[in-house]
Amino acid sequence: MEEIRSGLYRIEVPLPKSPLKAVNSYVIMGQDRNLVIDTGMNRPECYNSLTAGLEELNVDLERTDFFITHVHADHMGLVSELATDNSVVYFNYPDMELMRADIWERMGAFAAKSGFPLEELRQALEKHPGNRYSPSRLVEFTHLQEGDILQAERYSFKCLETPGHTPGSICLYEPAEKILLTGDHILGDITPNISLWVEGYNPLGWYFDSLDKVSQLDVSLVLPGHRSLFSNLQGRIRELKEHHRQRLEEIKELLSEEEIDAYQLASRMDWDIEASSWAEFPIIQRWFATGEAMAHLKYLEEQGELESFIVSEDGQKTRFRLRK
C-alpha cells in the first residue's frame, strides 16, 4: 500500500495466475465518507489482500462508498462482499446492461460464429474470470454518466465516458490536481484488451475516439487499473494508437492471403505471450486473442476496407475478406 497524494492511497490486489498480476484499488480517506475505486476479483486471495489494506488504513466499511470503473470481474468482483447497506456503489449504465442473465449465451453464440471450436468454447466459458469471479449478488447501483461530479473529500472528480475496453468504461478526472484515473482505458506498461464479443458494437472505433477525448486533458499523473503509475499521457496515447495501427496492417496482410474467420486470424497473429505456438496458448488467452482480432475486423469493416460473409456449409460461421 502507498500514499499517492494526501488521503489518496493505492492497494495492489493480486490476481493469481493472471498475466495482469494485480489490480490497483484506490482508496480516498475522508472525515465522513471513504471511497474505494475498484476492488479485485471475488476470490479469497483478492479479498484477503484488499481487506488487509483497508484495515491498515482503518477504513470503516459502514462509512465507505465504491466507484467501479467498468464491468470486468477484476475491477468489480468484490463489491458484493464489501458494500454495506450504507454504501453507495457508483457504476455506469451501459456496462450494467452487459450483466444481463443471457450475456454468456450471447457471447457463446457470437464466439461460435467467429470460428471458436465448440469444445474449446465450452472450456473458455467455464474458465472465464468474468464467469468465475464476478460479484456474488447484484448490488444497487447509482449510475454516473458524462459530466457528473464525484466528490471524495478534497478531490472533485469529473466523469468522462470512455467506451472501448467496455461499452461503459468511465475515467475520473481531477482538474485541480491534474489526476486522471483511467481504469483499463489507458495502461502504462501493457496494452488494454479491446475485444468484441456481442453484436452491434465497434469497440476499436470507440476506443480511438475515447483516446482522442482524454488526450486534450491537462494531466500530470495517471492512475491506471494495472501496473505502474505514469505521467506522460499524450505519449502513451500515441503509443497505443500506433500499436493498433500496426495490428490493423497485420490483419490486412493476413487477409490478403485468404478469407478466414476471427479464430483462424487470431491463431496467425503475433502475440506477446510465452507460447511457442497457438496450440500452447492457454484457452482463456485464445479467447482474449480472438476477441481482439474480432474488434479489429469490425473496425476495418466499418471503415469499408473489408467485408464479412456467412459460410453456411461451415456451420453459419462469419468469414472476412478484403474489399476489392
Walk me through this protein's architecture.
Helix content is 35%, strand content 21%. By secondary structure, it is of the alpha/beta class. It has a single domain (2-132, 139-322), classed as Metallo-beta-lactamase, Chain A. A 7-stranded mixed β-sheet has the order 1-2-3-4-5-6-7. A 5-stranded mixed β-sheet has the order 8-9-10-11-12, with no helix packed on it. The chain has a two-stranded antiparallel ribbon with strand order 13-14. Strand 10 and strand 11 (179-183) form a beta hairpin. Helix 9 (233-255) packs across helix 11 and helix 10 (262-268) packs across helix 11. The chain is globular, with a radius of gyration of 20 Å.
What's a quick, concise take on this entry?
The chain has about 325 residues and is an alpha/beta fold. The chain contains 11 helices and 14 strands. It has a single domain (about 1-130, about 140-320), classed as 4-Layer Sandwich (Metallo-beta-lactamase, Chain A), CATH 3.60.15.
Core attributes:
globular, five-stranded mixed β-sheet, Metallo-beta-lactamase, Chain A, 14 strands, seven-stranded mixed β-sheet, single chain, 324 residues, 11 helices
